[in-house]
Amino acid sequence: MNRIDGHLVRDPHDLHADVQDQLRQAAAEVHRRVGDQFDEQTVQRAVQDAYAEIVDHAKVESFLPILVARAAEEKLEEGA
Q1: Which tens digit of pLDDT belongs to each residue from 8-43?
Q2: pLDDT given at position 5
Q3: Torsion-angle region of residue 18: left (phi > 0), alpha (psi -120 to 50) or beta?
Q4: β-bridge partners, 7
Q5: What pLDDT, on a 0 to 100 scale, did the predictor assign at position 63?
Q6: Phi–psi pair at 37, nearest 5 degrees
Q7: CB 65 within 8 A of CB 22
Q8: In whole angstroms, what is the distance from residue 10 CA to residue 21 CA?
Q9: What is the CATH number of domain 18-79?
C-alpha cells in the first residue's frame, strides 16, 4: 500500500498481479449470490467462461473481476 494525499492506495502494479486470485474472488462472490441454485464447480466454470469471453475486449482491466462476476451470474440465471 502507498499513501497519496493521506489516503492508503494499492500499488497499481499489484492490481493485475494475480488474475487467478481475482477470478477466485469473483467466483466466491457469484457463489455467495447464487450458491443455493448452483454448485461451486458450476459457478467456477461460468466465471472462467465469462473471463475468456470478456478479457480480449476489456478496456479497463481493473474492472474485469466485477464484469466477469456479473456476466457469469447472468449466464447462470439464464440457464436456470
Answers
A1: 666 655 555 578 888 999 999 999 999 889 999 999
A2: 79
A3: beta
A4: 4
A5: 83
A6: -105, -25
A7: yes
A8: 16
A9: 1.10.8
Cβ-proximal residues to 48 (8 Å cutoff; 6+ apart), any chain: 23
Beta-strand ranges (E) seen in the chain are 2-4, 7-9
CA distance 30 to 26: 6
C-alpha cell of residue 22? 481475482
Instruction: Give me the phi and psi of 9, to 5 degrees please.
Output: -130, 155
- The predicted pLDDT at position 62 comes to 78
Domains of the chain, residue spans: 18-79
Mean pLDDT of the chain: 84
Look up residue 61 and give its amino acid.
Answer: E
